[in-house]
């Protein structure tokens, strides 16, 4: 999956914010070394699955997961430390909920 690809990518680290009520880890990916921190979260509302596609595109661009590197992504990594959460609500996503978590 996406998080596993990021864990293997140069310039990225994967950590957990902690477990959910159902015991799933809430993973986040750190990219960049800049002085400004930018948190980007996806799928707060689990029914908004298109947000995870945005996370995939963003991480592909920042990390060059598709094999391409560009100057804009390089500059962004210099200016910012991104903390990207592809799915902040994995319990809700897994259960098929639209706007809630497991609680």
Provide keyphrases for this structure.
single chain; 103 residues; alpha+beta; 4 strands; 35% helix; elongated
Characterise the protein shown here.
With 103 residues, the chain is α+β, with helices and mostly antiparallel strands. It is 35% helix and 26% strand. It has four helices and four strands; from the N terminus they run H-E-E-E-H-H-E-H. It has helices spanning 2-8, 50-63, 71-79, 90-95; strands at residues 12-19, 25-31, 36-41, 80-85. It has a four-stranded mixed β-sheet with strand order 1-2-4-3. The longest helix is centred in the middle third of the chain and has 14 residues, at 50-63. The radius of gyration is 14 Å and the shape is elongated. The protein starts with a helix and ends in an 8-residue tail after the last helix. The model has no long low-confidence stretch (mean pLDDT 95).
Q: Could you give the order of the helices and strands?
A: HEEEHHEH
Number of helices: 4
Residue fraction in strands: 25-35%
Shape: elongated
According to DSSP, the number of beta strands is 4
Low-confidence stretches: none
Give the N-terminus to C-terminus distance in angstroms. Answer: 26 Å
Summarize the main sheet.
4 strands, mixed
Return the structural class.
alpha+beta
- The Rg value, from CA coordinates, equals 14 Å
Strand order of the largest sheet: 1-2-4-3
- Helical content band: 25-40%
What is the residue-averaged pLDDT? 95
């Amino acid at each position: 999956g996406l998080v596993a690809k990021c864990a293997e990518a140069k310039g990225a680290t994967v950590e957990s914010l902690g477990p959910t009520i159902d015991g799933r880890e809430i993973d986040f990916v750190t990219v960049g070394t800049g002085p400004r921190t930018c948190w980007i979260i996806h799928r707060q509302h689990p029914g908004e699955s298109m947000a995870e596609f945005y996370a995939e595109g963003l991480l592909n661009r920042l990390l060059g997961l598709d094999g391409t590197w560009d100057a804009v992504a390089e500059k962004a990594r210099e200016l910012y430390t991104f903390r990207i959460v592809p799915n902040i609500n994995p319990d809700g996503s897994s259960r098929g909920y639209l706007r809630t978590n497991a609680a």
